[in-house]
Amino acid sequence: MDSLHSKRLPEGDRGNIVLVGLMGAGKTSVGKVLARLLRKDFFDSDHEIERATGVRIPLIFEIEGEAGFRARERKMIAELVARENILLATGGGAILSVENRQLLRDNGTVIYLRAPVKSLLRRTLRDRARPLLQVPDPAARLSELYEQRDPLYREVAHLIVDTGNQSVRALAAQIEAQLQQRSQPQPSMN
Question: Dmax of the chain from CA atoms?
Fold first, then answer.
């Protein structure tokens, strides 16, 4: 199976690239490298929320709950996708909102970084900044999140990339090549 699956790209997308996927998929790590390769400004929606509020996301979850955090996330995503020529790494749950999915899809090329639950768990196991994984059975919780969110990531994505065991640089270079290939005019079939 190819590691990159694609759908028709958006028209008039402001030159933005948006990375979606579960926590631990590599959105921030790959996004930073890919942004340099593509000469785009990099933003991480979770980091921007923390910058704007002055507190870490786990504290927002603790004080306002997930609903309060998601409201802040919707507002931040709307602000960020209004910009041009950015690469945006979203939080894993950003796609839960229909409004966010529409904003992301209409204002950029959305790439779903897909990884197996086993890989995601290995990458996130010791990270205390993941409020949704602070449960007795993080593996079961991550599997549940994957089952719930995978169809939404697929719905919003223009491209689906299986991250596999590639290095961050190799994955970013692969995505860059695929984006360049897709931006080339396609020969007519007449």
Answer: 60
- Between CA 190 and CA 176 the distance in angstroms is 29
* Other CB atoms within 10 Å distance of the CB of residue 105: 20
| Fold for the domain defined by 4-179 | Rossmann fold (3.40.50)
- Indicate the pTM of the whole model: 0.86
Q: How many helices (H) and strands (E) does the chain have?
A: 7, 6
Q: Where are the beta strands (DSSP E) in 35-108?
A: 41-44, 86-89
* Cβ atoms within 10 Å of 137's Cβ, excluding its own: 10
- Edge-first strand listing for the sheet containing 109-114: 4-6, 159-162, 109-114, 17-20, 86-89, 41-44
Q: For residues 172 and 177, what is the distance between their CA atoms, to the nearest angstrom?
A: 9
pLDDT tens by residue, 126-182: 666 555 556 667 778 888 989 999 999 999 999 999 987 789 999 999 999 989 887
**Would you kindly state where each structural domain of the chain is located, as residue ranges?**
4-179
Q: In the block, which residue shows the tokens 């719930």? A: 148
Residue 102 CA, chain-centre distance (Å), reads: 14
Q: What is the pLDDT of residue 16?
A: 96
Determine how β-strand 159-162 pairs with β-strand 4-6.
antiparallel
pLDDT digits (tens, 9 = 90+) for 56-98: 998 998 999 989 999 999 999 999 999 999 999 999 999 999 9
Rg (CA), the chain: 16
